[in-house]
Amino acid sequence: MSQQHRILVGDCIGMMRTLPDESVHTCVTSPPYYRLRDYGVDGQIGLEQRPAVFIARLVEVFREVRRVLRADGTIWVNMGDSYAGSWGAHGRDDMGVGVSTISQRQVMASHRKSKATTHAEYKPKDLMGMPWRLAFALQDDGWYLRQDIIWHKPNPMPESTRDRCTKAHEYLFLLSKSRRYHYDSNAIREPANLTGKGNANGYRGGAYVNGTTFANAEGGKRTRPGNTVTTNGVGWGHGTDKASRSRSRVPVPTGWDTSTGEGGHGAFHKDGAERKRRDSFKRDDSKREQAIPGQSKGTHRPDRDESSYDTATRNKRSVWTVATHAFKDAHFATFPPDLIRPCILAGAPRGGLVLDPFGGAGTTSLVSMQEGRRSIICELNPEYAALARARIDAAWLDGAAQMDVFRDSAPAA
């Protein structure tokens, strides 16, 4: 197990230099937020006096990530923002109003606070824009900036600020090493009826996991995002046991038709029916010229194959609703497993290698294990590395009976 999920203790750049070139499929990480907290370790990133120095150090980290990343690899980077003049995570302006962009739940999880983020480049109360400064710096350094994803937090803690909205989102950036890269969109498809009539409860893509349902304006129901992973009985999620893999990538959503008849769900799950199909030229009001004499306008031409569309699911959208929750054994904030699950599913194939240079409590390794991927995390603080190892070992023992993916005869990509 230790070879499948490794923890490298020390400076992340130095640790990554021990890894071979182009050996990692994807990198999923959340660097330290600027001036949020003191981790109590020499050489840490995040306490630099000037924002430009902070960004430059992160660019250096991701240069080493680029070396170990495969040519078709991606990185997924989560980062929160901060305000000039704020005092660490609490954030106070001259009127005593909270100015941190970090939720109070994260503040409570942080036991050491950094000094005030006062800089000549910024006016007091300025939003510093650190996520976008990092994204543009990485773009300037050669990365392809492919997408900004909004992490919407449905349960933000109230803030005492009276001159702006309560912060309820962070950014997650998708960047690639090359123009063409591995991205498994089918692994993270979501129900097509999230806002229409119907019931999406039970679908386990991205944030919509073990949630509840509520009525929408059109008389249907919609899933409210949950916090936990849909499992197959022992705490293991998507595709890590033979039965789940034989069916396909995700469990059948509650209420979806799995029959072998018309309109079943079989094109997405092998034991069901074919996907719903639409006529290539179905619109009755089409103004297209008649292609064949005697054929009515806007109908399917019999000499063409019928086009097939998946009408039950859709490409995942760029706003991900994932609730925050504190990890009780950690004295620092950890990102939710369901925030990074789509990143790992889309970014690395089964059996692929996931890297996190800022490993923290090992959440990236835990989700990688649940999804049948390998992992390497780097952690500067030995105490946090020990905590991550304990979590990984416990999860491995709990799910060992189900974890046969590395003995599977199917070759990894």
Automatic annotation (TrEMBL):
InterPro entries: DNA_methylase_N4/N6, MeTrfase_CN4_CS, RM_Methyltransferase, SAM-dependent_MTases_sf. It is an enzyme of class 2 (transferase). Residues 216-313 are annotated as: Disordered. Its EC number is 2.1.1.-. Keywords: DNA-binding, Methyltransferase, Restriction system, S-adenosyl-L-methionine, Transferase. The keyword Chaperone does not apply. Residues 268-290 have a biased composition (Basic and acidic residues). GO terms for biological process: DNA restriction-modification system; methylation. It comes from the Bacteria. Belongs to the N(4)/N(6)-methyltransferase family. N(4) subfamily. This is Methyltransferase.
